[in-house]
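Check my protein:
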Amino acid sequence: MNRKTFTTIVSGTLLCLALLLGNCAFAANAVTNADELVAQHLDSIASVKTRADMKNHLVQGPVEYKILVGGAGVLGGKAVLVSEGKKFQFMMKLTNNEYRGEQIVFDGDKDKVAFSTARQTRSALGNFLFVQDAGIREGLLGGTLSTAWPLLNLGERKPKLSFGGLKKIDGQELYELRYRPRKSSDLEIQLYFDPQTYRHVETVYSYSVSQGLTGVSPSSPQGGVPVPGSMDTGGSVGAPGSSPETAAARQQLTRYRLQEKFSDFKTVDGVTLPTHYDIQFTQELQNGSTTLSDWDMKGLDVTSNIQVDPRNFEVK
């Protein structure tokens, strides 16, 4: 055996051993149940002491609203999320009189979803959160950007958590944790975590009903108030070429899906939080039409333990 061949064999063997040890290390750190996942996740935010000292968060940055399916249109504005304990206010203020954005407040007991249109109605997203308010009351909305995040205080929340193992979501392997509030809810709620960092990167809320949510016009992605450039999404049941059976099936259920995504994590004063927050809301209506709207917040600035005006959390 010549020297070159021997060197190649040794190098290959060392590479295999490195890969094997890496996989073993990953397997040793892999979680197998909900308790282990939550523990690793909390440590990914901050140390036990730093988490105990976390009183409030103020999150600010730009927001861009777009209709991705069922119309067209782009609006810009500003997003603010302020939280203290279980209380929070989340506001997205857009530069448009017809659709002004969203304002959601929880005072620790009662919640409020403000009207968001010039006609004094809620948007489709706002109405969904108002009717199916578990995301607000449980502190899930906004993920770890809010001190109301329920995994920080499971002893008080007492939800039922079910570990789903690794799931492939949008081509990425993520740990799934199914969340069921102590108070009954019709929502299906899945939380997803990066298997290497244990950071919370996504929440999905799903709801299906034979009748649509009341208070929302099915003809527009914003509850009857189209933004500039948007298209009416109404239409007759049954697209060209569809069978009567297909048309009937489409009439059976209206489906709603709210998806929150979190990325671009940064560590400030020992606390690691996302600086990119994206919300997508999908409606699959009984008439066969689908709308998908997106609120994208990039470059968020997060500050903690500041003086917070209690009037932020007043529900009027």
Remarks:
- Helices lie at 3-29, 34-45, 48-53, 124-131, 134-137, 154-157, 244-252.
- The two ends are 84 Å apart (CA to CA).
